[in-house]
Specification:
Helix content: over 70%
Number of domains: 1
Distance between the termini: 59 Å
Shape: globular
Number of helices: 10
Radius of gyration: 17 Å
Number of strands: 0
Structural class: mainly alpha
Oligomer: single chain
């Protein structure tokens, strides 16, 4: 019998890899300037997948885990081209600090539910600097990558077999946050249109 969830998960992972490759290429060219705080912490967010695995493996977890590899590679690539540098501000460091504290709290808890909560909270804090950057400087990002990530995490919802919080929290969160990233690209356009009216 064909395991359709496994097939969907593989397609999702390939979509994520494609999204990361697009972003990596633009970063190496110096066209895209990733926020290093966000991408370093997102790479560590493989912990979110590990927290889910502590409650048992499901195909919905696979894309969550793979999602941690791309950002780490992008973080490293940002050091290759000096034009890919994005100047960090106080808010970036503050968000990064609290995200690290949330990760430490994950290490201190043995409760799968709390582990997932702290991992997601850390990811939210890591996302704030890049969300602000996308809204104000969308030209420094690779929009296609965010669309692909959002599509991948939308399809990932189809792989959820048991609708319990320990299995669904991370996939649902990633679905929401990735579409928020996509929406952030249109915030500046909306502000610009209001200014011209």
């Amino acid at each position: 019998m064909i395991n359709y969830k496994a097939i969907i998960s593989i397609i999702i992972v390939l979509t994520q890899i494609s999204a990361s490759l697009l972003y990596i290429i633009d970063t190496l060219k110096g066209k895209t300037k990733p926020n290093r705080v966000s991408f370093l912490l997102w790479g560590v967010m493989v912990i979110a997948g590990s927290a889910s695995l502590s409650a048992g493996f499901s195909w919905a977890n696979l894309p969550v885990i793979v999602a941690g590899a791309g950002p780490l590679i992008i973080f490293l690539c940002s050091f290759v081209n000096k034009n890919a540098y994005w100047k960090l501000k106080a808010l970036d460091y503050i968000c990064g600090l609290f995200a690290v504290l949330a990760l430490i709290l994950w290490w201190l808890t043995k409760n799968p539910l709390l582990a997932i909560f702290f991992a997601i909270f850390a990811d939210i804090l890591a996302s704030i600097p890049t969300l602000i950057k996308i809204a104000n400087h969308p030209e420094t990002e690779t929009k296609k990558s965010y669309y692909l990530y959002a599509i991948a995490h939308t399809f990932n919802l189809l792989t959820i077999s048991t609708w319990i919080i320990t299995e669904t929290a991370s996939p649902i969160y990633l679905f929401i946050i990735n579409w928020i990233f996509v929406g952030a690209f249109y915030l500046k356009r909306g502000k610009h249109e209001k200014t011209n009216n």
